[in-house]
Amino acid sequence: MADSTQNGPMQGGAGGGAVQFMMSNKLETAMWISRLFTVYCSALFVLPLLGLHEGASFYQRALLANALTSALRLHQRLPHFQLSRAFLAQALLEDSCHYLLYSLIFVNSYPVTMSIFPVLLFSLLHAATYTKKVLDARSSNSLPFLRNLLEKLSANQQNILKFIACNEIFLMPATVFMLFSGQGSLLQPFIYYRFLTLRYSSRRNPYCRTLFTELRIVVEHLIMKPSCPVFVRRLCLSSISFISRLAPTAA
Fold first, then answer.
1. How many C-beta atoms lie closer than 10 Å to residue 3's C-beta?
2. pTM for the model
């Protein structure tokens, strides 16, 4: 094994180590490819360079690619599938299961630009992480321009995750609006509410829960100002109380 590792770069050039790394991590590589495809399709939907009709088809492709990535990631986290309630409960704790559900919620719905940003940004962040590993396997100083871009993306990861959480939250009223405008189904708001409760209770990603708290603090600060009309203050306080009652217990 040591001999093949040493001879690899000589036989395959600078990219030999990267190829060997990807071949030895086939599942991770498959998810990397599907994430890059998700980023590609999402970008062509947000920027419909090929036309609006083609943009709508790229919307579905992005969500289907994200569903594939989420399913692969879920299989990686829980490799032994069991048709049981305990397995389902364990699967629902995984972020990959949340975004598998997310993709299924929106894949056949009216295209909503707001709904593609979480898929695009999560795929971009995870693809960037694996790309750095591939570059490291290729050479410690290969493609410095790309490395610089990846470092900048990594430096802004916290802001990106907050933006994703903001999208997750404001998609809830958007699904209700879509229902009343005739662009959504009756079940969509209820299923999306379930998704949002899963994100709120996420063990690995606390940003949705954190952003709910931050939004509550900001709203309460604004409505307590003397210039705020009384009826607006009462409406906001009632809404905060209602949302707080709907919030699940964090895991």
1. 7
2. 0.85
